[in-house]
Amino acid sequence: MAGMSVQAHSLATAEVIAVGSELLTSLRIDTNSLFITDRLESIGIKVVAKAVVGDDGPSLSTLFQQALDRVDLVVLTGGLGPTDDDLTRAVVAEVLGRHCREDLGIIEKIQRRFNARGLKMPEINRRQGLVPDGAVALDNPNGTAPGLWLEHGNKVVLLLPGPPNELKTILQALIEGRLLSLAPSNFHLCRRILRITGRTESNVEEIAQPVYSLWKNHATPVYTTILASLGQIELHLTTSAETLTVGAERLEILTKELVAVLGHSVFSTDGSTLEEIVGNKLVERGHRLAVAESCTGGLLASRLTDTPGSSRYFDLGVVTYSNQAKNNYLGVSPDLIVTEGAVSELVAREMALCARTKADVHAAVAITGILGPGGGTTQKPVGTVAIAVAVSPEPVSRTFHFLGLRSDIKFQATQAALDLLRRELE
Ligand code: ATP
Ligand code: MG
């Protein structure tokens, strides 16, 4: 290995090994490798495999040896602590054929950390000052064990502490420094997120797939992934390009093609949330908003006020849960509730109109529904939600049928209400 060294732009592939027996139980999830993967890919280093291994020397040794044979960069996380089960440092040193020596500079730093808290450094913490020959210690401002950078021929081995906040700080510094200069040159990862509501995942896939699949096989490919969450589908577009501008232009073309086929159900192409989009539209139109909620218990008002600057358009939110409250505070006629039922489009429309009048604003939204598990009927099963939006003189309304737990139905109802409002403001 003597004489060989890591060349600029030579790290193309990486493997991540998360060490810790707790990560093999159902009690702890290995989140570090997700962060590591995200950061490495942002500078063009491709993660080709990852592994989780317990605090077991022979298993770690084998895995590490295999990774070293396969990829340019091996990142290990966890097991750098002072206790007996922390063996990453020793195993790596052994596989690489290096001796470990005590680094007094590191030990002094650890001692100072303990002293600053009025404590004496336990003797076992000296182990965290053990460094394989040739390793560079990476400053860990949030903890005791430093990260370690080792070069082995034309390969790099990186040891990072397990606690996520410690790892993140150390890795981010490398991503902007040492690792960046070794990462593939002229590489820029560009991403764009399209957000969609009011369609199912399979419907989005059916419509979008013929468009995005063509881009996957381009000479300069764009990759698309679909992510579904409650009441919302996201299309994540990624491409790599020699400059950010070139990448952004490519994503802009695909974005336009996707919006052309998916239409109005795409509410955001720049990362903004549904609440923000609705807020911007209200500001543009100079409208102020009142909301009257029943089953969502204030969630709609809460979501609307999550956006900074919402005082420019949010005026009133009332939760009228009982029939009596719908009458007392909004003025919804008790007869209407009796004849139509509290969960009905006519009641929702009346709630919206009354809220709009009471608040003396331009726009109002009302939600009334059945969360369950009890209270459903054949005609109005659990999950039935009536939503009305009053922007024009005549309100619009729709009935939805949502599935899931109470909290799922509440969220989906607010999502549908925000979307109905967005469409009315367009
Ligand atoms: P320490 O110096 O704190 O002992 P360490 O490098 O030995 O650091 P571990 O003891 O393995 O790290 O883990 C410390 C903490 O970080 C634990 O709470 C552990 O669950 C968490 N942790 C370790 N590895 C991961 C991982 N891959 N993803 C998320 N959390 C992790
Ligand atoms: Mg540990």
Q: How would you sum up this structure, described in words?
A:
The chain has helices spanning 32-42, 57-70, 88-96, 104-116, 164-176, 178-182, 201-216, 244-262, 274-285, 299-304, 323-330, 334-340, 345-359, 406-425, and strands at 13-19, 46-53, 73-77, 100-102, 130-132, 136-138, 147-152, 155-160, 188-196, 222-229, 232-241, 266-268, 289-293, 314-319, 363-369, 384-390, 396-401. It is built from 14 helices and 17 strands. The chain starts with 12 loop residues before the first strand and ends with a helix. Strand 1 (13-19), helix 1 (32-42) and strand 2 form a beta-alpha-beta unit. The protein is an alpha/beta fold and 426 residues long. The longest helix is centred in the C-terminal third of the chain and has 20 residues, at 406-425. The mean pLDDT is 94. 39% of the residues lie in helices and 24% in strands. Helix 1 (32-42) packs parallel to helix 5 (164-176), helix 2 (57-70) crosses helix 3 (88-96) and helix 9 packs parallel to helix 14. Bound molecules: adenosine-5'-triphosphate and magnesium ion (MG).
Into which percent range does the helicity of residues fall? 25-40%
Strand pairing plus helix content: what structural class?
Answer: alpha/beta
Instruction: Report the count of strand segments.
Output: 17
- Tally of DSSP helical segments: 14
Which ligands occur here?
adenosine-5'-triphosphate, magnesium ion
Radius of gyration from CA coordinates: 29 Å
Percent strand equals 15-25%
Question: What strand order characterises the main sheet?
Answer: 2-1-3-8-7-6
Largest sheet, strands/sense/barrel? 6 strands, mixed
